[in-house]
Each structure stands twice: as structure tokens, then as C-alpha cells.
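Appendix B. Chain record.
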Amino acid sequence: MKQNKASLKSIASYLPDKVLSNFDLEKIVETSNEWILRRTGIEERRIANDNENTSDLGTKAAIKAIQRANLTPQDIDAIIVATLSPDYFTMPSTACKIASNLGLNNVTAFDISAACSGFIYLLELAKSLVESGAKNNVLIIGAEKISSIIDYTDRSICVLFGDGAGAGVVSLDDNFPIIDIHTASDGNFGDLLMTQRSQKSNICLPLSMQMKGNEVFKVAVNTLSNDVINILAKNSIKNEEIDLFIPHQANLRIIKAVQEKLNFNDKQCVLTVHKYGNTSAASIPMAMNDAYEDGRLKQGSLVLLDAFGGGFTWGSALLKFGGKNNK
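C-alpha cells predicted for this chain:
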């Protein structure tokens, strides 16, 4: 019996209006445009307004993703959000807030925490829900207001991150399947990238995000490269067959190191880190949307996604994009 396949039927993003450039950061913290560019490849990032929550960013991306899938909000029967900067500490979930914003009061809605690998984790969950028959149209959203949890006196951290959201809809479509997804984690590396807990109250203090950058770089490059090698080999796909390689946009040096190890050319590789910075779970769908809106990502494009994040978590996905061509 033929198994029906899940497909990513649309992609969309939302960018806050405010731009924070490296030159702006020079006025806030002891750093320089030259240093940031050399170490990260980032030129600027978007910053949400004080009255914009993560759920607001996610809602705006979601509305566009639903429209591009030729659906209405009432067609959505599950909403899953990946974020490390939720509106509230534990509840209500950001997904519940987005459901309310969309006028939906009877859908499955929950958040996951997988840091920068969040969107690939979402794809795996949505694929399982749709192919099992449990759900028909799953809205997946990576949304971040990281500016709300960053210490702008810590120059090693504040130059890296930005705000934004990306969303897509997963539904059945055998013609453009999500071919394969791999996700994994290793908590033994958790202390290399984390938000520290208060010694007094056991409450997570968001302004204590900590990262050991050199160690993260080494593990990330090797892990990302090996994961891609394995998923391509498992599915008998050669590097040159990939139309678009869309990695998590954390650091240009990491992306270029992985690209070189995997022998992808510049035409295949999608880069947005220079203009958005690291937007964690929103990074991959935001990059996908850029490729979609400039015509590189088309219906039927063979796409490889690859991400690595705090936890450590990581994942890769192979899919044929199911969205209709952008007009």
C-alpha cells in the first residue's frame, strides 16, 4: 500500500522594520564593524519594537504562509512553534498566542525548544503528524525576539543575534515530498551554549546567555558536515543534484567551512547571515523565504537544510519544495 507523503507547501517570513547595523553597535558596546565582519560576516540585523512580541512576529509570518498555501486559518489543525525567546516563561505557549491571533480556538498548539535546529525539528514533527493521518495541515513557525533576552553589554553575544520569524505549512502531496529528516542531540555539550539558571530561585535568567565560541565552532562544523554526508548517502543523492543548500545562518565562517567540506558551490548555497544575523529557529525559514521571493526556490526544487544549535541539537532535511512559484 502506497504511503502518502508530507510536503512543505509554502514558506514565508516577517522582518521587523528596525535595522541595527554594526556601526550602531559601535555606539553601544566596545566593538567595531571590521571586527564583527571578520569574525561573523554579519553587517546588520533586525530588531523588534518594544511592543512586538515573538508571537506577533510569528503571526505575521504565519498569515502569509497560510495564504501562499492557498488555505485559510480555519484549514489549520495544528500549530507548532520553535523558539528560545517565547512571550512567556512557561505558559501560555507562543503557539497558543498565535492561534488566538489567527482566530483559532480549537487547534492543537504547542512550542518546542531546540534552539537553532528548531525548524528542522518542526518539519519532522509535522511530517509525522500529517503522514499518520492525525492532522491535515500543520502550521510550523520559527519565531524569535532574541533582542529581549540579550545583554547588550556583552560584546561577544550581542553582535550575533537578530529578530524575525519564518513559517510554512505542511500538508500531504506525493508530488513534492519531504524526502528525509534527521535530528539528534548531545547534552554533554550543553554548557558550551546556554542560559544560566539563578543560584537563588532556579528561574532562568535570560540575560545570562553564555557561549564558548571557539568550542562551538569546532563541534558545529564537524557535526553539520557529517550529518549532511550521511543523509545524502542514505538517500543516494549526490551533492551536485541539490538545487539549494540552506544552512542555519549563524556565522559566515561556519557556513563557508561546511560548504567547502561538502563541496557545494556558491550558486547552491543560500546566504542571509550578513543582513539578518543569527535568528535561531527563524533562521532557516527566513533564508528559504528570501530564496523563494527572489526566484531561486521553486516548486520542485531539491532542497537540503542543515542546522546546529544549543543543547547541542542538530538536524538535516531533504525535500522537494511543494509551494507554488512566486509571482
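Further analysis of this model is presented in Appendix C.
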